[in-house]
Amino acid sequence: GYRSKTLDKYDVGLCEDKTKPMYNRIVVPVYDDDCKNMVGCVGRSRYNNSVPKWINSRGFNSGHYLYNYWFAQEEIRKTGVAILVEGQGDVWRLYESGIKNAVGLFGCKITDAQMIKLEGSGAMNLVILMDNDEAGLKAREKIKSKCERIFNIHSISLNEKYSDIGDMSVEEIQSNIKPLIEQITV
What we know:
Elements: H1 4-9, E1 13-14, E2 25-31, E3 38-45, E4 54-56, H2 69-79, E5 81-85, H3 88-96, E6 102-104, H4 112-119, E7 125-128, H5 134-147, E8 152-155, H6 170-176, H7 178-184
């Protein structure tokens, strides 16, 4: 459900080589802060009932990175706002909606290494935009507790009919989410 232009921008592809660990998975590269080197990748199963749904490439520690930081850091500095989402699809849908300062946590927890990266980003405000499930609700509270001494925290809750940002249309994000984010921009 993502635009091919978006998937091309983020170098997303499908591994069809049966000899590779990411075989039959949608492969999402992760880059360093300068977008010069790939530091690892994550692979999502093409099928929703596969376990595990996501796997990391060997040696890649996702807790040391924020997905999309390489593209988002300039907009974060400019606006003073970083938007925290759980995953890559959320980042892509926000990008398609004209929101360029979103970074993905690779899940529901923020690590100390990710916090350090955010502290150096120029963000004064964090928007917490987690999935609309029990894990997302718990994550929102834990992230708020961990970050509220350093950042102004803003939580945006999704309408209950959506499980995550990736389920929303561009138009729905532009009319319901984007105005809330624009009010926070310094």
